[in-house]
């Protein structure tokens, strides 16, 4: 069989997992743009669900409503591949789902097996409908795409992650302080790494990268080089 045919048959998915503020979304966007692949932040699906719960005045204990909400997301969720903008039907929710209270509720909902079970096929569908995708999240390499040929686990110090989050929130007109963000990040790390269902951890075959002292462009270049080594892409024609 021709080697190019073998290459085409390979699953073209790069997963980038890591804690909040590690830079995975920005890095994933850079890598996807360089490759001409789509970028999908599956965390936005959980955040969209949390936003709907909040607007319906529901809490994590109201999981009896989860089926109708996930059905709505399955039909109406859309994410633009180039801009990363997130839509529920015609309503853009890109900035709304970045609010701290949405992140907090999304993290709590993500601990529930019934939630993860219903959202997993939605996550796979969004990605597999396209030829080539870079996805970020917390369990992309361990649960959602364990068959991905290249898995990255990106981390950074809590202090650096809080600084990045502070800048992002301020740029979107949201006010908070650094100490509160560090506290929230540490609490979320504990919750995400210790949850029973799909805990935050590197896949066994993941490449672990620390972005504390590196730029997103430097991390993206490393990932592109790994993609070349894995023969997912051909250097001259795809970068």
Lay out the secondary structure.
Elements: H1 3-9, E1 13-17, H2 24-35, E2 38-41, H3 43-55, H4 66-76, E3 77-79, E4 86-88, E5 91-92, H5 100-109, H6 113-128, E6 133-137, H7 140-144, E7 150-155, H8 158-171, H9 178-194, E8 207-210, H10 216-229, H11 235-238
Helix pairs in contact: 2-10, 3-5, 4-6, 8-9
How many helices does DSSP assign? Answer: 11
Q: What integer value in Å does the Rg equal?
A: 17 Å
* Class per helix and strand makeup: alpha/beta
Q: Which percent bin holds the helix content?
A: 40-55%
Order of helices and strands: HEHEHHEEEHHEHEHHEHH
Characterise this structure.
The strands form 2 sheets. This protein has a 5-stranded parallel sheet, with helices on both faces. Strands 3-4-5 form a 3-stranded antiparallel sheet. It is an alpha/beta fold and 239 residues long. Residues 1-9 have low confidence and may be disordered. The chain has helices spanning 3-9, 24-35, 43-55, 66-76, 100-109, 113-128, 140-144, 158-171, 178-194, 216-229, 235-238, and strands at residues 13-17, 38-41, 77-79, 86-88, 91-92, 133-137, 150-155, 207-210.
